[in-house]
Design a protein that fits this description.
alpha+beta; 401 residues; 5-stranded antiparallel sheet
Length: 401
């Protein structure tokens, strides 16, 4: 039970406490945790001696704090839970709470590298049927390794950032030659991202058992995708300009410690995986995503169905000796379930644009139009039958420039 007004029973009670960065209009960014509809200013907490993070909570982003490692993450979290649940602490802590209505959220981390995986069997199968009709929906390597691509960390943006429609080359079906111009098949990908805290060394692998030692927390991700640009460019090297123009993340980083009650058994893998991908305790997370298109709920992707787990993704990312750095972000890839209303992309939802979706205002859509807004949210089981929230990742499409 927390003494913070209105927080108990919400998606952001003391069992959650996601980290973020907030600022008053025109003010300096401050590291905070969310509790109910308030942000607890951790810079002021540390300055007052209420919590000890070696001064890292007085920085403008979370990177220095995340670099301290799991032991310090756990100690600080336990201290914050104590401060926010012990009635005797209320008098000294309550003045450090700021109503969320009075602040703006900022990028919580400085992103280094960004890697995006392709870990949903349902998504990969749908895409295979749409792009390669009459052929096996999965490529021969798909069940043997977590497929991914190296994205662009510099275009990862916080929720609420305007998304400018990208331009590039695309090849119309009725033309022998490509044309240049704005994408006409602009899409979303509803994903879950994992933020690296403790780095690894170049040349050393991170095994599946070390996942929790390196990953600080979880964000929601919308990996915006220009399907027409992507379709023309991706052979033979994969996604490039069709993906690199923008990737949006939610502003609150939910720590892994808040997700213990959300663990679920991961789907069975067949054929057996290579030794470096084996897990002594194989689990995923039971996140329930929701996708809204101009306010209309169009899909509920279930994260628990992902074939490749976050621990396997990290192990594969580093198996060649590639290092991870504090602030690196890797994402699950599009989350899709077995049903049409569980798909995490509009490519699948409209089956390649052939089956338009009707929104609540009576309009129909296949791909995104200028002015459209997409919001992705998620919840997960918390302790004792509660649920915790992740906030939202939202973006509105602006016309090409």
């Amino acid at each position: 039970m927390t003494w913070v007004p209105g927080a108990d029973g919400s998606l952001f009670d003391a069992t959650n406490l996601p980290y973020g960065v907030v600022a008053r209009p025109g003010g300096e960014p401050r590291i905070a945790v969310r509790i109910g509809d308030f942000a607890l200013d951790l810079a002021r907490c540390e300055a007052a001696g209420l919590v000890d993070a070696a001064g890292t909570l007085r920085r403008p982003v979370l990177n220095d704090f995340m670099a301290l490692g799991r032991a310090r993450w756990t100690a600080v979290r336990e201290r914050l839970v104590d401060l926010l649940t012990t009635p005797d602490r209320r008098q000294e802590v309550e003045p450090l709470l700021v109503p969320l209505a009075e602040v703006e959220t900022r990028m919580p981390v400085t992103v280094g590298d960004y890697v995006d995986f392709y870990s949903s069997e349902h998504h990969a199968g749908n895409v295979g049927q749409i792009f390669r009709p009459g052929q096996p929906p999965l490529t021969p390597n798909w069940r043997h390794l977590p497929i991914g691509y190296h994205g662009r960390g510099g275009t990862v943006v916080v929720s609420g950032t305007e998304i400018v429609r990208p331009c590039g080359q695309r090849k119309p079906a009725d033309s022998d030659h490509p044309v240049f111009g704005p994408s006409v098949r602009l899409d979303i990908e509803a994903e879950v991202g994992f933020v690296v805290g403790a780095p690894s060394r170049l040349g050393e692998r991170v095994d599946t058992a070390s996942f929790r030692e390196h990953v600080f927390g979880v964000v929601l991700v919308n990996d915006w995708s220009a399907r027409d640009i992507q379709a023309w460019e991706y052979q033979p090297l994969g996604p490039f300009l069709g993906k690199s123009f923008a990737t949006s993340i939610s502003p609150w980083v939910v720590p892994l410690d808040a997700l213990d009650a959300a663990r679920v058994d991961a789907p069975e893998q067949d054929p057996p995986v290579q030794d470096y991908l084996r897990e002594s305790e194989r689990y995923g997370y039971d996140l329930a995503l929701e996708v809204r298109w101009n306010g209309t709920l169009v899909s509920r992707p279930p994260f628990r169905t992902l074939y490749w787990t976050p621990a396997q993704q990290l192990a594969h990312l580093t198996v060649n000796g590639a290092s991870v750095r504090t602030g690196d972000l890797y994402a699950s890839g599009t989350v899709s379930g077995p049903e049409r209303d569980q798909t995490g992309s509009f490519l699948e939802l409209t089956w390649g644009g052939k089956e338009p979706v009707k929104l609540d205002d009576g309009t129909q859509r296949t791909f995104l139009q200028d002015g459209d807004e997409v919001s992705i949210s998620a919840t997960a089981p918390g302790p004792n039958g509660t649920r915790i929230g992740f906030g939202e990742v939202t973006g509105r499409i602006a016309a090409a420039r």
